[in-house]
């Protein structure tokens, strides 16, 4: 169980959080490579269906940021 | 090319290369302490020893300086190599037992305790420092002495001028033996200083070659010629070698360019005040006394402490912070700055609130101030929240001095409370709220240009032409025009652009060139043929992610027909090559795995267009900012992530389609609503830029509130200027003036509005492309202080009327009282009306002018004469106007007596009630918006709880609405004086012309579209869209179903996610496309 790593599906708003994730890169902040980012035009685009689909496809967590 | 075996694997290198760099290139790590890629190897540390088999026998060589040859076999990590390295590590560790890097190596090679006699050195004599010193062209240090005496030193161990204190030796030293303290103490004869990072306010150092800050545009490094050693010695040029694209050219010279221009806009900004002059504040002596600009960097996530709130002396988290206001402002004694800097009160409150957010509520923040000046839109609410919700302490006191406490890092402030008690309080940190000043350099520029400056050194302008200098064709904006905050600076910037645009309107579009139109290939019906380009971005991606591996992986994905990896995908030659590849391979969808679409998507889309593809047949995935840069210690996982991201992008790409951008022609006429100063100025500005304007005013005359005004704070008579403006509007052939007209209805949207007007003479419909709302505000009619019950009580506008009419009764006023904040800063109207303090003081001075013996009292809560308006306040006090402060809960009491009005107020210095017998009482009544909900609905623009219209962005979009094609200026936005209204009106006109000048606008193709067959007419999309894009179809078979106007849609997708019938699709971010990405995750 100690080796277990969560898989996180991430939806980032193009205008804010996606830019913040870019800035984290520019600033060379290091974080674990456990999540995969899907860029969306706005967090308002997120339908509950996407969250359920991500969980169904094996995501351990879903992160919506916007 | 030489081929040899490395750990059993066949590898290749160029003739003359050494083993170590070839091994590194092939991902084989060999430990070394004395190797640096730009320096000739020396084989000093011996750690890089490897085993070499030459066909007959094995031997040990140092890989850093042993050249490769055909057929050799090298083992870098055999048991014998490890054994030999262990001995080397053991000996190094015996010499330098406390060096961390050697301790780590000791652990790695199983050396717990060296068997040899331990020394206490930390230099391993690797010679890196001496070699780099030679390379940079100084040769100030060398390995001196022999045998056991050998050490790194200058000749004879003396400090020398030859050492440039450049720090190259310290930067390469593997053990930390040489650091800048050593350089300072032993090597350099002259001063050793950190190169202060300008961006981090000197709290951090920077290199001589540097990018000023992460978001700098252009985001390319610059060389600081005054610090770069090459310009001192002629040597070094290490950066030239390190740069993968050979972009560095040390021979470049400064060029003087001559530009032929028709107008100049000056926006040179301000200089933060240097508080070293305030000797008693210890700024230059104590690290825990810092300026507000430095504190901003401490709070910033990209700052020197990464947003962690600590103080400088000991990096301890402070528990108590004090802000001292007006450092370098409103002060004639310690600096020559009599003006108010306008922004410091607000930024201090902001800094205190954010500091509390960062550090938690137990942080004590105290702001020491004279008058709290929160006169901007929504600022008063922010002030109230800081005080009441966040518990920031506000102490009305001017602190004389800051003393360090005995022996500690804390600071002691002594101050007098409002009651006159002396208090001593200790703080961990003190922030000086420094003011804005104009630098000598800018003053020199102004002199060169022949531009007049004010007493405070700012550009001199008039209230009716706030961005025009005294030189025709030279305009000014921002803090050089006067101290101001961001929204006001943005307004003036647009205003200056409008003025320059009006001056040059005849030359509009005479220097533009048309772009070549490339025919778009129709890809409908084609099977997806995806091209995937993976970028190395030099070493940015390539050194972490296995780019070639990702490329090869992409080839295995469905529909992928072509893959390539590029060193720099964004370079012009790669772009040209991509265009050719797309055409040659009939690719119809492109995926680029590189940096961020936020900066590079448009560039690649342009490449698609050049290759004859629709720009939306493109998908970008981010394997730099969101992968290689953030997982640099986990290259394998980063490569896995890159593969996943490419797979997701390919899955989406297979589903994307060509999108069309709706074209819209912009009706070239503008409508301005409101005939006050703002409306008239906006109309005139639009007309002067060459556009037809319909100016609508509901009353029968032009002028608005300005009809009541006597003079501006600069002493300009409003009446004469207003008459001139009205005449210019009436005689302007491009302005279609509609007096006495009301707006009945509005249809349409940006580019094609249809507005129905009604007036006494009948009804009429006007078509226009843009709208400027300048509907103004009115004066609050007080119910307090006997207003309306006693004729001696007037509002400040009524008093202005008397001034205008030169009312003879004013000569008999012996005692006049002004009461401030009547209807403003009250629970039911919690905003500051911004203009009243200046206006009342100006009126008070005028009364003094009419009758110098009159007693004049101003009863106030905070005097808010921001910027250079402060001079008026100073002048009023000099002329004997008496200012008495009162608190919200102790308002003055007014009663009428036969001898006059009696005004009773508690004097803040005496702490006792004083009674003033007055002949006249002027009330500074609030500015109240019209709350015109009908107009707000017509143009689909929002209004705040006070009834002012809400702009697109409080800081960056103050003159427009988020609804396209509708603009805002004047009092309808927020109370403001004439100069600011004029600037705001010109700004709105400038923003409107951006649309008008394009004639046709094409809107983004990533918009939502309904399928009326599925629509259940629930109306959710219509009600939630922030941009009013969806509406119900009114005619035809789908009447009552929703439809989305692509021109208004911003593509946010809110309606798509909310549609319960699944009738809406967001093109470019379709549900199928996002689902495809989720499936591949």
List its salient traits.
heterodimer, A: 66 residues, alpha/beta, 2 helices, 26% strand, flat, B: 1081 residues, Ubiquitin-like (UB roll), FAD/NAD(P)-binding domain, five-stranded mixed β-sheet, 28 helices
Content-based structural category of chain A = alpha/beta
CATH architecture of the largest domain in chain B: 3-Layer(bba) Sandwich
The helix tally of chain B amounts to 28
**Major sheet strand order of chain A:** 2-1-3
What does the radius of gyration of chain B come to?
A: 36 Å
Oligomer: heterodimer
Number of strands of chain B: 49
Number of helices of chain A: 2
Q: Rg of chain A to the nearest angstrom?
A: 13 Å
Query: Remind me, CATH topology of the largest domain in chain B?
Result: FAD/NAD(P)-binding domain
Strand order of the largest sheet of chain B: 2-1-5-3-4
Strand-helix topology:
The complex is a heterodimer of chains A (66) and B (1081).
Chain A: E1 8-13, H1 17-26, E2 35-40, H2 48-56, E3 61-65
Parallel strand pairs in A: 1-2, 1-3
Chain B: E1 2-6, E2 9-13, H1 19-25, E3 49-53, E4 58-62, E5 73-75, H2 79-95, H3 100-108, H4 128-135, E6 142-144, E7 151-153, H5 168-172, H6 180-187, E8 209-210, E9 222-223, H7 230-233, H8 238-242, E10 264-266, E11 271-272, E12 289-291, H9 292-299, E13 320-327, H10 344-359, E14 364-369, H11 379-388, E15 393-396, E16 401-404, E17 411-416, E18 422-427, E19 429-434, E20 436-437, H12 440-449, E21 474-476, H13 486-503, E22 530-535, H14 547-555, E23 560-566, H15 572-584, E24 589-594, H16 597-610, E25 618-622, H17 624-628, H18 635-653, E26 663-665, E27 669-673, H19 677-688, E28 692-696, H20 718-730, E29 735-738, E30 742-749, E31 752-759, E32 762-768, E33 770-773, E34 777-779, E35 793-795, H21 796-804, E36 815-822, H22 836-850, E37 855-860, H23 870-878, E38 882-885, E39 893-897, E40 900-906, E41 913-918, E42 920-925, E43 927-929, H24 933-939, E44 966-968, H25 978-996, E45 1000-1002, E46 1008-1010, H26 1020-1024, E47 1030-1032, E48 1042-1044, H27 1054-1058, E49 1064-1066, H28 1071-1079
Parallel strand pairs in B: 1-5, 10-21, 12-19, 13-14, 13-19, 14-15, 22-23, 22-24, 24-25, 27-28, 27-33, 28-29, 33-44, 35-42, 36-37, 36-42, 37-38
Antiparallel strand pairs in B: 1-2, 3-4, 3-5, 6-7, 8-9, 11-20, 16-17, 17-18, 26-45, 30-31, 31-32, 34-43, 39-40, 40-41, 46-49, 47-48
Helix pairs in contact in B: 2-3, 9-10, 10-11, 13-19, 13-25, 14-18, 15-16, 18-28, 19-20, 19-25, 21-22, 22-23
